[in-house]
Amino acid sequence: MMTESRSTSPSTRDALLDAAYDAAVAGDWARTRMLDVARAAGLSRQTLYNEFGSKDALAQALAMREVARFIEGTERALDEAHPDDPIQAVAAAALSTLHRAADNPLLKAALVDDTSGLLAYLTTRGEPVINAARASFENYYATHWPSLSLDAIRLAAETITRLTLSHVVMPADVPAETIATQFADLARKLLREDTES
Fold first, then answer.
1. How far is it, in rounded angstroms, from Cα 38 to Cα 162?
2. Which of 14, 21, 29, 123 is most buried, most CB within 10 Å of its CB?
């Protein structure tokens, strides 16, 4: 007897995640059943369970797909801005991330719907999100400014990633441009010994 493989095709996975996204954005995540997601995707419940195993794992995958999109957008914004130094890069990345967060339907749904449990994937269960964003930061800086020490890059990545996530989850009542400038000032201090040499 043949069983379905644990990993489905990318298009099937995307269809399932798209259906989950639609349910979450509609504010129905707490009431959404795995069967509802499978039906909305036009797939069997067994296919959904084979791919994700549980609603919790589906929510985690949904959060990580959105984070990957944020990271891609931030890296694209940095490539377009062509920052000359790491301090300008921090400001450009922060500005891009905060602007996009303010308009992100999934993030808005997670922040507004207390019953959904989705916010936990950015807070108490947010370590995978932080790890992905921190790795992107470290890779970008190490690649573009190899003269910076890895310790300084790691410290800046850890600090700025966590602060950015804090501002995304609890937006401040100040313009994103002001926050980006503050992040740049912080990066200047964290990377000072490298940028001044």
1. 34
2. 29
Among 77, 189, 71, residue whose Cα is nearest residue 138: 71
* pLDDT tens, position by position, 83-129: 788 999 999 999 999 999 999 999 999 998 878 889 999 889 999 99
Indicate whether 35 and 75 sit together in one domain. Answer: no
Give 75-111 as a DSSP string.
Answer: HHHHHHH--SSHHHHHHHHHHHHHHHHHT-HHHHHHH
CA–CA distance, 182 with 98 (Å, rounded to integer) = 13
User: Are 44 and 87 within one domain?
Assistant: no
Q: Report pLDDT digits (tens) over 46-72.
A: 999 999 999 999 999 999 999 999 999
In 3D space, the residue among 132, 140, 134 whose CA is nearest the CA of residue 77 turns out to be 140
Cβ atoms of 87 and 187 closer than 8 Å: yes
Burial of 124 (0-12, 13-18, 19+ CB in 10 A): exposed
